[in-house]
Amino acid sequence: MTYFETKQPLVADIFSRYPDSPQGRRSALMPLLREVQDAEGFVSESRMAEIAALCGTTATEVRSVMSFYSTYHTLPTGKYHLQVCSTLMCALAGADELWDHLVESLDVQPGEVSPDGRFSVQKVECLGSCGTAPVMQIGDDGYYENVGPGKCAQILESLRNDLQPLPDNPVPVTVGDDGRQVLATGQAVGSSVTGLHRLPGHAGGDA
Amino acid sequence: MKVTVDGTEIDLPAGTSAIDAVFSAGGDVPYFCAHKYLSPVGACRMCLVESGSPRRNPDGSFVMEGEGDAATPKVFWFPKPMASCTMQATEGMHIRSAKTSQVVAKAQAGMMEFTLLNHPLDCPTCDKGGACELQDRAFEYGYGASRFGFDRRHADKHYPLSDFVILDQERCIHCKRCVRYFEEVPGQEVLDFIERGGHTFIDTQEGGLPTGFSGNITDICPVGALLDNVARFRGRNWEYDHTPTTCTLCPVGCSITVDARNGRLERIVARENRDVNEAWICDAGRFGHVFASEERLTTPLIRDEDGQLVAATWDAAIDAMKRGFSGMRTADVALYLGADSTLEEGAALEALAAATGTRSVDHAPRYEVSVTAPQATLTDVATADAIVVIGADLGEEAPVLELRILEALRGGLIPPEFAHGTAIADLRLVERPARRPERLAVIGRESRLWAHAGHRVSADSQGALARLTHPDTDELRAVVALLDGAERPVIILGADVLSGAGGSFSANLTDLASRTGARVIAIPAAANSRGLAALNLVPRAGGLPVWRAQEAPAAFISRLDPGVRAAGFTVVHDTHLTATARLADVVLPAVTNYEKRGTVQNLEGRLLPLHPAAIQSGESADLIRTLSALAEALGVKAPARGLRGAQALLADHLGLDLSDLPARGALHTFRRTFAGPAAPHTPTLWTERMHARPLSWVDRIEELVHSDWQLPGAPAAPPARAGGSD
Ligand code: SF4
Ligand code: SF4
Ligand code: FES
Ligand code: FES
């Protein structure tokens, strides 16, 4: 069965956002991809062909667009898709150890899903929350910050019981008016910062 | 428009791109992604130049530099080098190429280093080596050294995109030519970039490339990433003997270059001809050449005492023919030839028929009708604002005509021509061009073209012409309205209309064409059917056509395979041991059209030259020489002594001067044509012998040994050839 067969109102709604022209139809590509991935965790080849037919393009082009974004998956993902930042700040703060620990304890490699169907893992580039390194994102839900060994164990334990802890920060990262990243609690992040100045136009002295 | 390139002022037409401005000034700019017949996109950043323009004050005067009379408009230079393929040259612009600018030279060398970061540099094993744009440009514009000390990208080096095209993903430099080609030219979005950044590779999600025009990407890939799988590993570019000639598999007559090595035809690539095929050829023309070097007849064959065909010399074959024809009147020998024979060959056969007095002369395939409506050229097709195709399956009849139709649908923008050739970057061409399917109507059976047509009428093609005179359905009325409303309409007629067309055909066509002002292309049945129609090569009163060859008392059949023999002595002249040749008393080896010198006329009436490629075919002879042998056996005077003699015949009879035909060919209309009842004809592009057999290397070499193939060079004994020389 095709995915959108039974979702005509949704399809109509998505197409209504774009001009009713061949080019306009192609623009619906992204929301249609998103829809399938959110529902199924990945976009299979048959879904690519289906979306291509809807947009009036070819599966090649759907795959081309999709593969440009590392956030679309062509392989099945687990219920909890753990994305570990592996860029410099997080790497300095122990992201490699976090990654090794996850891969080992969950017994899953990138592209695989753990036997219980719960976990899949992916290394990602900077999530833009360097102040709280190491950072991990679960699905699209949000950031888990300062994920050290203890916090990691805690998170995994809850996930195994399907009790996903609330993220520390919903995406996108909260940045204060003054341009500084703050924790969900409102506390400014970064401990060893010196020489930062408030942006012009903001009241108050140096942070 | 005045533009200053490297200090020299030149005059250019408005709209010229900066890259063409530099080439027009006699300069050079390295480029990878720009291509003459594709949209310029600025993907490779190799074509950098420095440029600047004068600026105007609010009052319209130029911002000046200098004092008094010495003041000149001040040139405001762009702060960084610019890609010249996507930049339009404007009035007063100044451009500096690497010749005069250190900045440009350094930027290009840097770009080159960047492009080469992930390039495998396996030139020694790459089929493109020696004819590679990347190799040449790296040599001319690169640093000559890399500072990249890390592992290069590794990816699939033998990734078949189809049976014909193989991709080396490591070699791709992401110029996007192949992707744009498929989108813009045949209109098939089947290739695209997958992934991003340094991981980007080319792939298709359609389970392979569509056949038809896929091979063109192997020509335009600037590196050795996309390769012709039929020719892969068959030779290095400098080892091939390159012969510019014309494809005669169909009546389009595309310009091609035939590459032979060690006497074998190994590869065919497209050659630019702005008037015919631009830069494209079809897959049959490119990949379907294997017959030219496989299972060829290399010597005459005669029947031995046991009635078996055995190899013989030309002299023995002439003796056998003398014996076979003895006691017969020369007029009893029917003369037949294939309709892809050259005009010269046709003239020689016409002359021999006159000498022998035979009434049974024919060429095939051909159609009975001759079309007198105004002729459309291929350029007319590409620039038409309405095209009606009736009863044609272009994929089988004239593939590249289909590309010219699609060109018209995307606006008919033909890149301008400069002294340095076709514009390298025509800025009017854009990615994802808007298409005008409503300008195309197809009538008849469903074909590949249907997907592109705004009007599709499923109808009996032969009746369609009459019905267009008095349209009886809304669909047909729409087609007539399309023709009526157009300024440059073209009607294209295919086999379904032309084969067996009835009496009112010509009247209907003339009527429709004059009423709508349309020009017409009637696709001829074979590559040179149109040219041969100018010669009296149809049965005279009481003569037998090819399809009644079995009733002839004797026959000479050249490069035709009717599958029957004449009642009496039969001579077959062919390149292969065909079914007809197996029935013959004497078989004479023929050369293919790749090995001929001569002239053919294509579907628009353009005379196009054939040149002989260096292919080993033993003692094979073209029809002119073979007819000399036949004349000798019949005891009549040879009709023409070689090619020049045949051309003299054409000059005498038709006033045709073929001695210096331009490489692009020349349009010519013959005043008189000969027609007569014809057998039904269904064109097919691919024949069985055109398919490459999948052979392993071991099998291939074994086969070469078995077929006595040897390195050409010094033949043991000079081959005895019959007849005159050219
Ligand atoms: S495969 Fe060739 S033509 Fe296609 S993008 Fe790569 S280098 Fe360009
Ligand atoms: S379109 Fe016709 S002439 Fe051109 S390459 Fe194909 S077969 Fe040859
Ligand atoms: S480096 Fe990990 S969030 Fe920026
Ligand atoms: S950027 Fe590639 S040729 Fe201009």
Strand order of the largest sheet of chain A: 2-1-3-4
Helix and strand content put the structural class of chain A at alpha+beta
Number of domains of chain B: 4
The set of bound ligands, ions and cofactors reads: iron/sulfur cluster, FE2/S2 (inorganic) cluster
What's the total number of strands of chain B?
Answer: 33
List segments of chain B where confidence is low: pLDDT < 50 over at least 5 consecutive residues.
none
The CATH architecture name of the largest domain in chain A reads 3-Layer(aba) Sandwich
Structure description:
Chain A has 207 residues and is of the alpha+beta class. Chain A has helices spanning 8-16, 22-27, 29-40, 45-55, 59-68, 88-92, 95-106, 149-160; strands at 80-85, 119-124, 136-138, 142-144. Chain A has 2 domains: 7-68, NADH-quinone oxidoreductase subunit E (Arc Repressor Mutant, subunit A); 80-170, Glutaredoxin (3-Layer(aba) Sandwich). Chain A has a 4-stranded mixed β-sheet, covered by helices on one side. In chain A, helix 3 runs antiparallel to helix 4 (45-55) and helix 4 crosses helix 5 (59-68). Chain B folds into 4 domains: 2-115, Ubiquitin-like (UB roll), CATH 3.10.20.740; 122-139 and 148-293, Alpha-Beta Plaits; 301-366 and 531-667, Rossmann fold (3-Layer(aba) Sandwich); 378-522, Dimethylsulfoxide Reductase, domain 2. Chain B is built from 20 helices and 33 strands. In chain B, helix 7 (314-325) packs across helix 18 (623-634), helix 8 (343-356) runs parallel beside helix 18 (623-634) and helix 12 packs across helix 15. Chain B starts with a strand and ends in a 20-residue tail after the last helix. The model of chain B has no long low-confidence stretch (mean pLDDT 93). One FE2/S2 (inorganic) cluster binds at residues 31-34, 42-47, 83, 85 of chain B.
SSE topology sketch:
The complex is a heterodimer of chains A (207) and B (726).
Chain A (H helix, E strand, L loop, with lengths): L7 H9 L5 H6 L1 H12 L4 H11 L3 H10 L11 E6 L2 H5 L2 H12 L12 E6 L11 E3 L3 E3 L4 H12 L47
Parallel strand pairs in A: 1-2
Antiparallel strand pairs in A: 1-3, 3-4
Helix pairs in contact in A: 3-4, 4-5
Chain B lengths: L1 E4 L2 E4 L6 H7 L23 E7 L9 E2 L6 E2 L1 E3 L4 E2 L10 E3 L5 H15 L16 H9 L17 E2 L4 E3 L9 H8 L7 E3 L6 E3 L12 H5 L5 E3 L12 E6 L8 E7 L2 E7 L12 H5 L13 E3 L5 E3 L2 H12 L7 E6 L4 H14 L4 E4 L13 H5 L3 E5 L3 H4 L1 H11 L7 E2 L2 E2 L17 E5 L10 E4 L2 H9 L4 H12 L3 E5 L1 H4 L6 H12 L2 E4 L6 H4 L21 E5 L11 E5 L4 H5 L2 E4 L8 E4 L4 E5 L12 H12 L7 H13 L11 E2 L29 H10 L20
Parallel strand pairs in B: 1-8, 19-20, 19-28, 21-24, 21-26, 24-25, 26-27, 28-29, 29-30
Antiparallel strand pairs in B: 1-2, 3-6, 3-7, 3-8, 4-5, 9-10, 10-13, 11-12, 14-15, 15-16, 17-18, 17-30, 22-23, 31-32, 32-33
Helix pairs in contact in B: 7-18, 8-18, 8-19, 12-15
The structure holds iron/sulfur cluster (2 copies) and FE2/S2 (inorganic) cluster (2 copies).
One FE2/S2 (inorganic) cluster binds next to helix 6 of chain A.
